[in-house]
């Protein structure tokens, strides 16, 4: 490990010029990546924003190296956590940024697994602010087929017969959420927005045939990672921002069935209730499904850890305190991530099995 740190420290003498606007790898950067990969494989830590990354950068378990590689608008930071080589990278907001960043990480570096973490809104009424969730499945719930007005559940969607779209996953009917001061007993509510049908992503796994699509809506995290994550339940988490501002409920780590992502900031109670009742999702946020889909296609093990910062759309006394408890939620997510890595390293046979 000393050799790794000495090598990475020495790389600081390589001045990294900005890459060309087309994102091509220049010789110096390519050489730097090649040499860094000799000290892999790494655990990739994919993080949405700086306020979620900074608690990890300041955590005593993280030992940074002086190597930082900037490429294609992304910064890859090298270091170790509990002596395990890691690469940290910030994605930025939303599905596109998260997907592009994850693909760059997996394409450039020797990555044996991905840990994605951050904060999230909450759709599950049995959970609370500060709780840290570890879902088994993730979906992208904003790939839609928006049905024309006048058609209904019995009408085939455009291009459905070609396999492009499906009615298997289900839909939301906007008329169910129409409000009016005047009601008619003779006719139900109607809405010109009609229905939106949820669609699976097209995926192209590396072990499949190129250009032959498969479909995925619920993407499972790595089964080994999820299994050992049960050892995180019972971990003590922080419940206070300061001496005067504390949560009403002691935060906990909990494994849940499902989470969902979309490039939409969800702060609407009606839609929160709909997707919870429809899909049994707990965390709702804007990046994890993109990370999941890229890892799924590249056959790289991954897990997602999301701390709840608010109840999406409000509805309880503690429900919409995102501004107050964001830092606390970010700190709790980092605490769980570090503990997960410790546990992962205590199972060397698991690392070998996942890697193979």
From TrEMBL:
GO molecular function: catalytic activity
One GO BP: nucleoside metabolic process
A Pfam family: PNP_UDP_1
SUPFAM superfamilies to which the protein is assigned, alphabetical: Purine and uridine phosphorylases
Signal peptide (UniProt feature, chain positions): 1-23
Nucleoside phosphorylase domain mapped to chain residues: 45-342
Keyword Glycoprotein set for record: no
Keywords carried by this UniProt record: Signal
Coiled coil: none
PANTHER family registered for this protein in UniProt: BARK STORAGE PROTEIN B-LIKE (PTHR21234:SF19), PURINE NUCLEOSIDE PHOSPHORYLASE (PTHR21234)
Protein's UniProt name: Bark storage protein A-like
Organism: Coffea arabica
Lineage: Eukaryota, Viridiplantae, Streptophyta, Embryophyta, Tracheophyta
